[in-house]
User: What shape does this take?
Amino acid sequence: MTALTQAEIAARAQALGPWFHNMDLNGVPTAPDHFLGDYPRVKWDRFRHALPADLTGKTVLDIGCNAGFYALEMKRRGAHRVLGLDFDPDYLAQARFAAEVQGLEIELQELSVYDVGSLGQRFDVVFFIGVLYHLRHPLLALDLIWEHVASDLLVFQSLQRGSDDLPEIAPDYEFWDTAHFDAPGYPKLHFIEQSYSGDNTNWWAPNRAASAAMLRAAGFEIIENPETEVFICRRAERPDARYGAVYPTPGTAR
Ligand SMILES: C[S@@+](CC[C@H](N)C(=O)[O-])C[C@H]1O[C@@H](n2cnc3c(N)ncnc32)[C@H](O)[C@@H]1O
Assistant: This one.
């Protein structure tokens, strides 16, 4: 634990802000007025039970770790190694400070999800929470995670809009059969050309069926869906050679 006083922590937190994660830094909240409440704790409380309580000996990768809330929770569960990635150095500075105050050792690296291949290793648990809808190329990101860094569990969450239905989708439809496209629960990835919720990095809003379908299409088997936006998956075989159109083609020069 840190030797800093609460006043010193508050001053450092203020200088490192604004924060997206409301971290509890020795009693100092970093984002007490978050529009989603005590975030991400309120989210975590809805799916924490779905993950192993003991991660002793396991490796964890948190892609888009922000201020490190989930990375630090995984370290608390005994993970041997936790690596948090974010492409925003300001968020990584927050995570570094949060880890210091909480007295937990995690690694942090400035890296985009598109570059996870450069890590050259796989992790037992990969978090990919709250990032997909910020990406211009969401399915590519899932393909790259499958291809390069996931070895077992993937913990996925996305902002979702539209229907929460999970209807059976037929493997194929006849060309003139179009009605299913208008069914609210058919997998839909709503494209946001300009901005959503004041954030012009929100590019997509999948419905629940689209999150599930994209995960399967990238080669992940869904083992639990503990709340509508959260999917606990296992890396599986890709069912068909047409899947995994990863760029660059594995084995070619970069
Ligand atoms: C909505 S926040 C989610 C933070 C955290 N994972 C959570 O669920 O609370 C999105 C995070 O993803 C990061 N991010 C966005 N695009 C990224 C990319 N291409 N590579 C890595 N991180 C990215 C942002 O910097 C931000 O920290």
The longest helix spans residues 89-102. The pocket of S-adenosylmethionine is lined by residues 20, 40, 64-66, 69, 85-88, 91, 112-113, 129-131, 134-135 (CB under 6 Å).
